[in-house]
Design the sequence.
């Protein structure tokens, strides 16, 4: 496994020939090159920006040093066997520090013309609680001043920490973290589980302590000390994972009091709704689906699909041993990822990463009269614009596209002899 900086320096990243404006152009560049890592100088900013760094599974696997087939089991093993990281005296992120905060000097983009303001999109908040310990979670942050942002906080662990602290909380924010930290921060863990222990199980993490006492990964590019305050401010509009605009809400303000950064630090731009956003948010749910499906049948592979916003749709392959395995797998998949809206179950001869092969399985092995499961009035995702906007109630659908066990020949896909065309043409 390589660090964020090492990966950038060795990946063969695309570099722009001229500076890019933070106002719409930076995000537009990332969108135009979605799926391809890019590095650029930014006008009126003191640091360069990088984006699309982990925008494909292949890039994630390359950084983690594993194959696509090994990825989910590697993530699942880290969740099952967390390891406490080692605290060290110093690290690259502490090379520079200042209390003279000016967020306008950072390459923080205005992503789209309807956005409420410039947004920090790749920030991970690290918070401590006297009883529950450390928590890592992604939160978008809209810049409203030289040292102030508005933080979008869901009713999960950070909100619980805030409530227990009386509504205000000292935190750290990191930008430019390694892939093991990014993935771990996106995992839905139980309250009291330190996500940095997941990260350290994936690859070694060393931590350093900031002056407010919070430990952070030693090799990240930027770190900020801040205090989430009771003061509220409008947050949004901003583009969600689905590529649609989220609504404007009152959210709490964070005042940033100190900034740390590496020498020649690189600002990580996470394009909202882009492939990197989808990979980092959706992929950590694949092991939780696999774990639940494995409780009822043998799960072979999971893909939370980019066409389903890497959140709402999944394809799951199983080794079918009884006729009701497909339906059991549908229920288990919804249990493994509660925001899931549609799931397709296929046999283990179908590549879950190949949409054409999945569609072929639906076309040739699925009959709606026996293989369609519809669940009405389910709790859905706040990211789904078609769900009830107040309760998030939705209808969910499962498709059992596995072949019957009693007549395999009819449902077998013919295979050609494998030929290397270069030997013949």
Sequence:
């Amino acid at each position: 496994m390589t660090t964020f900086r090492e990966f950038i320096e060795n990946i063969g990243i695309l570099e722009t020939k001229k500076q890019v404006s933070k106002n719409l152009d930076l995000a537009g560049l990332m969108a135009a090159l979605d799926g391809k890592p890019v590095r650029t100088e930014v006008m009126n900013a003191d640091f360069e920006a990088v984006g699309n760094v982990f925008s494909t599974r292949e890039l994630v696997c390359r950084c983690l040093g594993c194959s696509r087939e090994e990825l989910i089991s590697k993530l699942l093993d880290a969740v099952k066997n967390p390891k406490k990281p080692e605290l060290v005296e110093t690290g690259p992120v502490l090379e520079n520090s200042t209390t003279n905060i000016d967020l306008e000097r950072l390459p923080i983009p205005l992503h789209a013309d309807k956005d409420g303001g410039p947004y920090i999109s790749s920030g991970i908040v690290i918070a401590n609680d006297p009883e529950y310990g450390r928590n890592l979670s992604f939160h978008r942050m809209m810049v409203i001043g030289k040292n102030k942002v508005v933080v979008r906080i869901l009713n999960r662990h950070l909100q619980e920490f805030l409530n227990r602290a009386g509504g205000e909380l000292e935190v750290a924010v990191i930008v430019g973290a390694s892939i093991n930290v990014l993935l771990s921060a996106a995992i839905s863990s139980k309250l009291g589980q330190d996500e940095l222990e997941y990260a350290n199980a994936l690859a070694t993490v060393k931590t350093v302590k900031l002056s407010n006492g919070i430990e952070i990964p030693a090799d990240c590019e930027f770190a900020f000390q801040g205090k989430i305050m009771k003061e509220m401010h409008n947050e949004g509009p901003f583009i969600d994972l689905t590529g649609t605009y989220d609504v404007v809400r009152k959210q709490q303000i964070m005042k940033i009091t100190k900034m740390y950064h590496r020498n020649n630090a690189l600002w990580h731009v996470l394009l909202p709704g882009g492939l990197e956003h989808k990979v980092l948010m959706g992929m950590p749910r694949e092991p939780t689906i696999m774990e639940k499906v494995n409780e009822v049948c043998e799960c072979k592979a999971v893909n939370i699909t980019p066409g389903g916003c890497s959140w709402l749709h999944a394809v799951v392959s199983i080794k079918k041993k009884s006729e009701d395995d497909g339906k059991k797998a549908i229920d288990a998949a919804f249990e493994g990822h509660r925001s899931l809206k549609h799931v397709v179950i296929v046999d283990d001869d179908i590549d879950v990463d190949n949409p054409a092969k999945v569609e072929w399985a639906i076309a040739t092995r699925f009959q709606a009269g026996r293989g369609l499961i519809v669940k009405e009035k389910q709790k859905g995702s706040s990211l789904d614009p078609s769900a009830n906007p107040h309760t998030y109630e939705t209808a969910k659908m499962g498709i059992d596209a596995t072949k019957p066990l009693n007549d395999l020949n009819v449902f077998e896909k013919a295979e050609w002899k494998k030929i290397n065309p270069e030997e013949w043409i």
Summary: The mean pLDDT is 93. The chain has two domains: 4-280, 295-411. The longest strand covers residues 222-235. The longest helix spans residues 68-80.
